[in-house]
Design a protein that fits this description.
Elements: E1 2-5, E2 8-11, H1 13-17, H2 45-55, E3 63-66, H3 73-79, E4 85-89, H4 92-102, E5 110-113, E6 128-132, H5 134-137, H6 150-166, E7 173-178, H7 182-189, E8 195-201, E9 207-213
Parallel strand pairs: 3-4, 3-6, 4-5, 6-7
Antiparallel strand pairs: 1-2, 7-9, 8-9
Bound molecules: S-adenosylmethionine.
């Protein structure tokens, strides 16, 4: 199947075979247990590398990848010099596959089964957190996008609470890459004592990179 999204063309046979019956299935763990392949939501690293390098000049930064899935983002960042990456996903299957794929060739990366709403890390322990499409997966519950169900508000709020807790105070950076327009995302990302910058990516169909600093 070929999906055209403005100037972006995404070709993925696995997705075509496994499109969910209902949108809400994107919000379940079962849906994300993948075949042993790779798939990237929205953008590959090469397309956003200049923005990431600008936001993260220190390649030794300790980075938390939230809902890594079977994306190539972490391996591409690793190969670009960002070696200190901890990858988490609530799908144990995907974490096992990713660990098996990378543990020899990229030994410094870690792979942990974990829920982004309940991080098992100490406070002030990461320089950077990255979410590419993961908060979006928690926004697929049935309901009005203009007035989301309380469960969606709670899930997204918990993620951002947890991210801000584990980021180093005063110098942490949260990068969130999404198709979600500012009206639908800023409510979760506007917090006291933080700054939020939004960068638009693309031409006809826009993606957004939210840069939240504490
Ligand atoms: C849209 S995919 C994005 C995957 C990857 N970040 C990418 O860019 O291709 C969403 C991923 O988030 C994971 N996920 C969804 N909700 C999660 C949660 N509450 N905690 C941890 N992982 C979650 C899913 O298992 C899936 O791998």
């Amino acid at each position: 199947m070929i999906r055209r999204l403005g100037s972006d063309t995404v070709v993925n046979i696995r997705m075509a075979q496994n499109l969910p019956q209902k949108n809400e299935e994107y919000g379940t763990k079962d849906y994300w247990e993948p075949e042993n392949s790779t798939f990237d939501w929205f953008k590959k690293y090469a397309e956003v590398a200049p923005l990431i390098r600008e936001a993260l000049p220190d390649t030794s930064a300790r980075i938390l990848m939230l809902g890594c899935g079977n994306s190539t983002l972490s391996e591409d960042m690793y190969d670009d010099g960002y070696k200190n990456i901890v990858n988490i996903d609530y799908s144990g299957v995907v974490i096992e596959q990713m660990r098996a794929r990378h543990h020899e060739s990229r030994p410094e990366m870690e792979w942990l089964e974990m829920d982004i709403r309940d991080l098992k890390f100490a406070s002030d322990s990461f320089d950077v957190a990255i979410d590419k499409g993961t908060m979006d997966a928690m926004m697929t519950a049935k309901g009005d996008v203009w007035d989301p169900p309380q469960s969606v508000i709670d899930d997204c709020t918990k993620e951002v609470d947890e991210v801000l807790r584990v980021l180093r105070k005063g110098r942490g950076v949260f990068l969130y890459l999404t198709f979600g327009q500012p009206h639908f995302r800023k409510r979760y990302l506007t917090r006291p004592e933080t700054t939020l910058d939004v960068k638009e990516i693309g031409a006809a169909f826009h993606y957004y990179l939210y840069v939240l600093k504490n």
